[in-house]
Amino acid sequence: MNEKRLIALGITILFGGFVFAFCTEQVDAGHVKVGTLFGDVDPEPIEQGFHFVNPIKNWHEYDCREKTHFTQQIQVSARDEQTLTMDISIQFRVIAAAAATIKQETGTVEGRGRGDSHGSQVPIPG
Questions:
Q1: Average pLDDT of span 66-95
Q2: Are 53 and 33 in contact (CB under 8 A)?
Q3: Band of the pLDDT at 93, cuts 50, 70, 90?
Q4: Sign of the CA dihedral 89, 28, 108, 119?
Q5: Among 31-40, 87-96, 104-113, which stretch is predicted with the lowest mean pLDDT?
Q6: Contacts of 20 (CB under 8 A, 6+ apart)
Q7: Angstrom distance (rounded) from CA 14 to CA 16
Q8: Which residues contact 52 (CB under 8 A, 6 or more apart)?
Q9: Euclidean distance between CA atoms 98 and 46, whole angstroms
């Protein structure tokens, strides 16, 4: 009788471990995750922390911390026909509430500006 209980307990613990592993999602600080299920994008992203989720959803992570994009030196002609050389840097961050819209309309943040997005504008909430 004890052997059957131990086997049942072992199977229960093993099953619980699998459920726990596949039904949880951890989001790091400064990030959000957007869920997709059969091509449909969830309108609300999950924010930092530990979450119990649908195990068949796919999760896409977006970094909401400030980033800086540096361009190469750009040469510009001035009115007096002299050439100016500039370094341009762009600072940006993803607004957490707009992550689902970004996923829906452009796919990823990295895809913007390389010719592989269709030029749609992401609305800024607020």
A1: 84
A2: no
A3: confident
A4: negative
A5: 104-113
A6: none
A7: 5
A8: 23, 24
A9: 12
Q: d(Cα 71, Cα 35) in Å, to the nearest integer?
A: 32
**pLDDT confidence of residue 11:** 92
Those residues whose C-beta lies under 8 Å from the C-beta of residue 65, and which sit 6 or more positions away, are 30, 31, 93
Average pLDDT of the residues in 78-104: 85
The angle formed by the CA atoms of residues 31, 35 and 37, to the nearest 5 degrees, is 165
Confidence at residue 1, expressed as pLDDT on a 0 to 100 scale:
60
Q: What amino acid is encoded at 55 in this protein?
A: P
| Structure tokens belonging to residue 3 | 């052997």
Count how many residues are written for the chain: 126
More confident residue, 65 or 73: 65
Question: What does the alpha-carbon distance between residue 66 and residue 64 come to, in Å, rounded to a whole number?
Answer: 7
